[in-house]
Amino acid sequence: MKILMFSVRDDEQPAIKAWAQRNQATVDTFEQDLNLATVEQAKGYDGIVIVQHAKIDSEQVYTKLHSFGIKQISLRSAGYDVVDLAAAKANNLLITNVPAYSPRSVAEYALTQTMRLIRNLELFDERTSRHDFRWGGLMAHEVHTLTIGIIGAGRIGGTVARLFHALGAKVIASDPVKNPELAEFVTYMDQASVLSHADVVTLHTQLLPTTTHLMGAEQFSQMKSTAFLINASRGPVVDTPALVAALKEKQIAGAAIDVIEDEQEFNNKNLTNTKITNPNVLALQAMPNVIFTPHIAFYTNMAVQNMVDISLDDTKSILETGQAQHPVQ
Description:
Blueprint: E1 2-5, H1 13-23, E2 26-29, E3 47-50, H2 59-67, E4 72-75, H3 85-90, E5 94-96, H4 103-118, H5 121-129, E6 147-151, H6 155-166, E7 170-174, E8 187-188, H7 191-197, E9 200-203, H8 217-222, E10 228-231, H9 240-248, E11 254-257, H10 279-286, E12 290-292, H11 301-321
Parallel strand pairs: 1-2, 1-3, 3-4, 4-5, 6-7, 6-9, 7-8, 9-10, 10-11, 11-12
Helix pairs in contact: 4-6
């Protein structure tokens, strides 16, 4: 069994080598994304595994993979919008993802950033960087006094609910599916009610046509002026210019942004000596009440291990049986 993994980072290598040894398989790695320029790398392999931000929108990629005898594309990520599912299906390529690599990783990020926001730590950082050590105007809130609003109470959102409930916060959520296992922790409401009642709104929904720009100007106007937004889901879930406007106009108090539209331009890249031109990134970075991170909410030891293992397990299963545990089509 020969498998090629695209866009492999150094921190993934130990898990990849351990899996290959356990399964007596050859797993080679390639640093670049899968696209029309790199698809020839897959020739001679039985299966491929990818993770990337750029969409594979050239149909020739899928037809070439089919011509190489490849029967699948396994993503080591939850999101699969980078794949043209229709083109994949037309070329008999089974697509899999890792729907729950580590709900705790993203949930703990949401908790961490909530703590920073309600303690005004990002504002104190800005003050003290100017040698202004006054307290004035930055009194904190205790988490047990807050109402936490969750948009998308699936695996990750449900974990967020449990964490905040354990700390004494009131938890409300909007989700088309009401999970009875969360009944002890969550009060379900419609989205508008969650936005209007929550002190912190944290987003944990998939990226779908129905969730693109789920948070826009209308939704920000429904939030409290003292409320915070956390987005650790997918960038296009939030209308970024609308978020920038809401922050500038003080419709909301602040935000922690881990994902953003067009993030493939800069995420996990060293642009120290490069001029950033994305106006939304520049605007958010200039605001002292915004915490901006480069899509690292998932990035923990357990998450990386699970993303490698589950994606390779699905690849192996497809090659041996034609089926996988986590198909997306």
